[in-house]
Specification:
Structural class: alpha+beta
Distance between the termini: 33 Å
CATH topology of the largest domain: Gyrase A, domain 2
Largest sheet: 4 strands, antiparallel
Number of strands: 8
Strand content: 25-35%
Shape: globular
CATH architecture of the largest domain: 2-Layer Sandwich
Radius of gyration: 17 Å
Helix content: 40-55%
């Protein structure tokens, strides 16, 4: 049943993106557990976006996609609620334009209770403490030490890290002034530059990191970081 749900959700999102962006992803990989859904997109870059990439207009692509996602997120939430019976409380997304990939992370409302009760998001894994230490170091360099860090291996290729309490006062003021979009793009550029120094992650996890994504929920003062792993390579 879970495999059928994953296939149905992947097909739905592929069609939704194709109808909205003019071109859908080459492939869609959906992973589901009792509290989290991830959607990994590959070969997702339209011909127009490819031209903009050659002109170093990545920020323009990000802005355009952000506008489209504002309309798509409620549709995806509604579909997941009806067909997966999962009420999504948090929705994160990010793109790796140079890799032509993207990722959605949907977190159910009951996930918050696990975090409040200091329960892990999933099973423990080797190197968890070291991964949290590395995420804390990067967060301090980019903004500040998170109030809380939680993480889980959703599957052997997907490591999800959730940070709580990462916004500094100047960022909160920019959000209050209606500058969330500019702040999101600036934070993407800054944090992804720090996160993409993957040698430390690969050393801890003893495998290759093929993609990294990061996004924020400014209203909740939370952030999701996702490492896409290739366990067959070291």
């Amino acid at each position: 049943m879970e495999q059928g749900l994953q296939a149905d959700l992947g097909s739905y999102i592929g069609k939704l993106l194709r109808d909205s962006f003019g071109r859908g992803p080459g492939s869609v990989f959906v992973s589901i557990n009792n509290t989290t859904v991830t959607v990994y997109l590959r070969n997702f870059l339209s011909p127009t976006e490819q031209i903009l990439m050659t002109q170093q207009q990545e920020n323009l692509i990000q802005q355009t996609r952000d506008k489209l996602m504002e309309t798509l997120i409620p549709e995806i939430k509604a579909y997941v609620k009806i067909y997966a019976r999962m009420d999504i409380n948090e929705f994160y997304y990010d793109w790796s334009l140079h890799n032509k990939t993207g990722l959605f992370v949907c977190v159910c409302s009951n996930e918050d209770e696990e975090i409040k009760n200091d329960k892990p998001l999933g099973s423990d894994y080797n190197g968890k403490e070291e991964i949290h230490d590395e995420i804390n170091k990067i967060s301090i360099e980019a903004e500040k030490l998170p109030e809380k860090v939680s993480s889980t291996h959703l599957n052997e290729r997907t490591l999800i890290v959730i940070r709580d309490g990462i916004l500094v006062r100047i960022e909160k003021e920019l959000i209050r002034m209606g500058l969330s979009e500019s702040l999101r793009i600036a934070k993407r550029n800054l944090e992804k530059g720090l996160l993409h120094n993957t040698s430390r992650f690969e050393s801890i996890l003893n495998c290759k990191v093929s993609d990294i994504f990061v996004d924020w929920d400014f209203n909740l003062d939370k952030s999701a970081i996702v490492l896409i792993l290739n366990p067959t390579k070291k």
